[in-house]
Here is the input.
Amino acid sequence: MSGSTLLKETGPREVFCGLTSIVWLHRRMPDAFFLVVGSRTCAHLIQSAAGVMIFAEPRFGTAILEERDLAGLADAHEELDRVVKNLLKRRPEIRTLFLVGSCPSEVIKIDLSRAAERLNSQFNGQVTVLNYSGSGIETTFTQGEDGALKALVPLLPSSKEEQLLLVGTLANPVEDRLKTIFKRLGIQKIESFPPRQSTQLPSIGPGTKVLLVQPYLTDTARELKNRGAEILQAPFPLGIDGSRLWIEAAANAFKVNQSLVESTLSPLILRAKKALKPYAEKLSGKKLFLLPESQLEIPLARFLNNECGMELIEVGVPYLNREMMQSELELLPDSTRIVEGQHVEKQLDRVRDSNPDLVVCGMGLANPLEAEGISTKWSIEMVFSPIHGIDQASDLAELFARPLHRHNILNPKTLETA
Amino acid sequence: MELTLWTYEGPPHIGAMRIASSMKGVHYVLHAPQGDTYADLLFTMIERRGTRPPVTYTTFQARDLGGDTAELVKGHIHEAVERFKPEALLVGESCTAELIQDQPGSLAKGLGLDLPIVGLELPAYSKKENWGAAETLYQLVRGLLKDIPQETLKQSKTSWKDEGRRPRVNLLGPSLLGFRCRDDVLEIQKILGEHGIDINVIAPLGASPADITRLPKADVNICLYPEIAESTCIWLERNFNIPFTKTIPIGVKATHEFLDELHELLGLELSSSINQNNQSKLPWYSKSVDSNYLTGKRVFIFGDGTHVLAAARIAKEELGFEVVGMGTYSREMARKVRSAAKEHEIEALITNDYLEVEEAIKESAPELVLGTQMERHSAKRLGIPCAVISTPMHVQDVPARYSPQMGWEGANVIFDDWVHPLMMGLEEHLIGMFRHDFEFTDGHQSHLGHLGGHSSTNEVSSQNAPIQELSNKIDSQKALHWTKEGESELAKIPFFVRGKVRRNTEIYAREAGCTEINGETLLDAKAHFAK
Ligand code: SF4
Ligand code: SF4
Here is the structure.
């Protein structure tokens, strides 16, 4: 392992629960519906996050537990069947229904996986019913996607065919772009998971080589491996270096001629470096502090340090899977301070003490820190932006340069005070 | 279990957070799982506050459930008191913590802390946000005032005269995540100032526990938001003999009545030097000939009790709309909303089921929906113009500009906001006359600055899809057939009233016993329903 310092912290946390993954998954797979089994809190969470969009047809909802359910007066499974039936009556076009577990449903131990099985046999053919947990007690933010994808894995058809599988949510144009590049390398069959339609699942088997697009897919990766796929070791495709190594990992696995890789990637890299330069100049030497949120923090820190010259004060992660992060950790500068877990108050004390130029944090903290005069980049934007691949490196850097740039526009230094 | 696509209110602990965050010097320790801190965003993003809410969450995880969660709570209480040094502490649970029953309120009281502690019991599986806010405010006020000797503070109607000072009132109810509370307070405060009435305490918004202890010094309580403050006002009346106002000053007429009521309670003469009638511009705007076309516009109203009651009155008496549907999700206000609906000869819809509200909108086929953020979804689906009058709301309803709903300026804001989504008069006429334009197509609203609404284009191409659905439903009771000629006569009806005309024609046809509808039937029906 590299020379980073790995620390652990416990205490109050300021993170989203896994339910939040619904906010992007419902757009990736518009034929799916996400039904949370939980409380009014869970319903309120999702609508506060996504309700600013106006929906003619909602794609998520909550079966809110009532007192009768808690007192055991109503049979949870009968209740759930009734709710699901009503829902499907209103929305017959739904193809995949995710029953999403929450803290309340887990604390009172409603067996949603059994419910999913039962409903599946009832609606055989019309709709597939699946289950995963998005509860706060079990999952943090992007881990919800890990759960959803893991639930889909058993449905993937088996095949021994040689193929490359890109796993983790990608923006559509990025997905297309990456596929084009792999095709140029002569890799014939490239699929992505999750697909754009929940019914068009890619196949899986011994011929499948998996590139993880996102760092938060621990369980999904394990399940894919159990289905015979090979998980390629690589850093994540953020920035020029990360993306190059990521693409090369597939090229090696598919035994692509080294010079073809070189001739395909070098023009992209050259162009990307040019595009990155103005942002890197803005970011270079600036002190960066990342709070835990999505597990994207380590690859982001690696990119912002190695390619944009930022100085890393602290890299917070909600969860650290050392094995999966191995390639990333090796690229981090020695003695990087990595903190797994959180005590948000103490961490904020460290933020204030270290006087960073930019803090990557959640939206619960962003405006309060701005009001204290500390520039912030709210972190969830990274899961809503097309940031993967060599061509996106400058866009990714721009996300971080923007708040600094904005600060300069709004507070122009006059000659006198400069 | 209750299938909920959109919820009109959050859980009750959000209400408690609203009280804590609105105030100063109050801290709230909330026993809650990791993840429930999403609620901070309501304040930092929707209310755009530059401070963190004064809330310490215990954020337990699954692995903590095996251990001692009660110890976890105690630790967080100690830390919070130590770090934030509040004047008073609220302690409560979220929905998940309620299931594991650690009794954090009593735990806190057993810690020997030297500050007032209010343990909150907010049943998350039966109550909701506004109830939680009302209960928290009530418990906090009670907790801070119960030791104050009542005799010394007892006010009489005229004590301000006896003491030779201006009368002073409390403004109770305004809070963060309330609808336009920030500016309502300013507007009411300004109006009261003009009438020589001082403000004693505004709470919870901006008040500290020390301010709360000064509540009994007021001559009258002004209950601006009954959903939040009614229980507190009743308690203050009972214990300190302070009367409170019942009229909510939203709308020109209601503001007049509110002032009358308040002066009566204070035993104060209404100042004759203030010209009561020209304070708001709404009356003249609404009277001016340009507003003629607003007459009889069919409007559906939904939201919290207070804003719905106010809106219905303004719609009918001040703007000349016809109220064709009204309802509320505030069960506590059901009685009042029901009786108000009677005056409009309709039945009130009391529900928190978004689908039921959508169905009711569809049935009454209004030309304008005045509702919450949720009604914007239904209105989009049905292609009906919509304005937001009540919470739940989103960030666009916490605007930078001065935007009260109450008082004189509030009525000005209301006039602009409610009329804006409607098609402007000239355009409405021209679309009624010439239907073959390539730019100003059916359902298009050019003042909204886009090329035909998404909804409007759908509406045209799919031939009134939602209304079609509705008529299908009616059709199934008894087959009704629209002839081609009947359909084309219907297409001549201006966009926004077309749904209504289709419905009426079908009702008429059914009554008259005809199964086929042609152009004549439509005209017959029009004559039949003409008032
Ligand atoms: S943290 Fe738990 S209770 Fe809270 S919204 Fe998420 S799943 Fe629901
Ligand atoms: S797009 Fe235009 S017509 Fe459609 S709802 Fe929005 S404002 Fe109204």
